[in-house]
Amino acid sequence: MDLTVIDNLCAADFMRVEHLRELQLARLKNIVKHAYDNVALFRSRMDERGVRPEHIKELKDIALLPFFKKIDLRDTYPFGLFAVPQSEIVRLHASSGTTGKPIVVAYTKQDLDVWSEVMARALAGAGLNKNDIVQVAYGYGLFTGGLGAHRGVEAIGATVVPASVGNTQRQVMLMRDFGVNGICCTPSYFLHLIEAANAAGIDMRELPIRVGIFGAEPWSQGMRERLEEGAGIKAFDIYGLSEIIGPGVAVECTEHAGMHVYEDHFYPEIIDPDTGEVLPDGEFGELVLTTLSKYAMPMIRYRTRDLTRIITEPCKCGRTIRRIDRISARSDDMFIIRGVNVFPSQIESALLTVEGVSANYMIILSTENGMDSIALEVEINEASFSDQVRELEALQKRISAAVESVIGLRIKVKLVAPKSIARSEGKAKRVIDNRVR
Ligand code: DLL
């Protein structure tokens, strides 16, 4: 694919807003009819509400439609939400989740083309092109990260290195020997790659790598600074979920001021998670997504559990597709300690404002005297490790104060030796929950 083809591909990012809304409405009508005609659960939920596909006359009529949740995918496991015959399905993916059976998602050939298109737009928007070599270090397999990024790299005509996860030393060697310019992986894994490179005497800042496309887990501004400084790159936040397509639902442009949603394919709404009421652009709430052009398994008003807001101001880059803010948290990740709502991402943001700590940490929840209690284990870096006890105590206090200033709770902080917290290759595990239920 040459550069003019990529320009055409990205044209949808800059479409006149009236045209975009017309396109969204036409696609919405079409997909609602397709889902109604072919998915029993969708039809019965619409019938219960007395809503028919022809009632969708304007975009705001989307509010007439029922919501769907992860439990609906579990209840219809494995193929109950498929809207085309199996002969039309060319790919399955699955997300393991934390309990029980995985959820299964399906793609027609055309769905895969949509996925490649949005991933190509994402990578091109981050400044990658056919002259680049891009290492994909998201897991390949049932997880959508690896294969999703892979097809996007091919679609922009860049050279893909399908490294998948693991074998960290080899990843570093490939980056150096192949002169890799871009990498796609989780932010926590990239942190691990920087450490592994340093341990092998390689300074990533001296390698040709200049772009990282990081997602699949929440990460803070502090983490961004560490990754960008540690490797001499620009870091781009990419968001997605299996139920909608995989990576490529929304991504940052070079302004790094929120993620542009590919809303010609995925229609975003923000709702109040408690009442289900649709909130105006700009307000924080739960992101709800509708796939406008996915046929194997259309998702209508899917409640993601991810908390964010739609940014209303136009982006300096000129794209007309709206942006969402960094995903601040998943509503499921919240825990309540002594009556205070706490999200792991708040703890990371506070922690990484403190100098002398590494970005490797673990939150430990337990039960003490019948009450929920929280402790934070933080790895110190090599330089702080040799400090006097007095200095370490001062560091501990600084961390505790930084966290308290954000969450309003004093929590126990334990400093642990460098490299003592397990590194993850995919999504980082940040919380160990030992609470007695
Ligand atoms: O994580 C798809 C993906 C792969 C996205 C590679 C980006 C890059 P799932 O395993 O289904 O799919 O997990 C989806 O991960 O609902 C969010 O809670 C979280 N998530 C994904 N991207 C981000 C991000 C993939 N950039 C779930 N920031 C979503 C924060 C994210 N959370």
N-C termini distance: 55 Å
Number of strands: 21
- With strands numbered from the N-terminus, the spatial order across the biggest sheet is 4-3-5-6-7-8-9-14-13
Biggest pleated-sheet summary:
9 strands, mixed
Radius of gyration: 22 Å
Spans of at least 5 consecutive residues whose pLDDT stays below 50 are none
**Strand residue percentage:** 15-25%
Would you tell me the structural class of the helices and strands? alpha/beta
What overall form do the CA principal axes indicate? globular
Helix content: 25-40%
Residue-averaged pLDDT, rounded? 95
Task: Walk me through the structure.
The protein is built from 12 helices and 21 strands. The longest helix is centred in the N-terminal third of the chain and has 22 residues, at 17-38. The N and C termini lie far apart (55 Å). The chain has a 9-stranded mixed β-sheet with strand order 4-3-5-6-7-8-9-14-13, with helices on both faces. It has a 4-stranded antiparallel β-sheet with strand order 10-11-12-15. Helix 2 (17-38) crosses helix 3. With 437 residues, it is an alpha/beta fold. The structure holds 5'-O-[hydroxy(phenylacetyl)phosphoryl]adenosine. The site of 5'-O-[hydroxy(phenylacetyl)phosphoryl]adenosine (DLL) has 20 residues, from helix 6, strand 7, strand 8 and strand 12.
What topology does this entry show?
Blueprint: H1 3-10, H2 17-38, H3 40-49, H4 70-75, E1 89-95, E2 103-108, H5 109-125, E3 133-136, H6 144-155, E4 159-161, H7 168-178, E5 182-185, H8 187-199, E6 211-215, H9 221-231, E7 234-241, E8 246-252, E9 259-261, E10 266-271, E11 285-291, E12 302-308, E13 310-311, E14 323-324, E15 329-330, E16 335-337, E17 340-342, H10 344-351, E18 357-368, E19 371-380, H11 382-385, H12 389-407, E20 412-416, E21 431-433
Parallel strand pairs: 3-4, 3-5, 5-6, 6-7, 18-21, 19-20
Antiparallel strand pairs: 1-2, 7-8, 8-9, 9-14, 10-11, 11-12, 12-15, 13-14, 16-17, 18-19
Helix pairs in contact: 2-3, 5-6, 7-8, 8-9, 10-12
The structure holds 5'-O-[hydroxy(phenylacetyl)phosphoryl]adenosine (DLL).
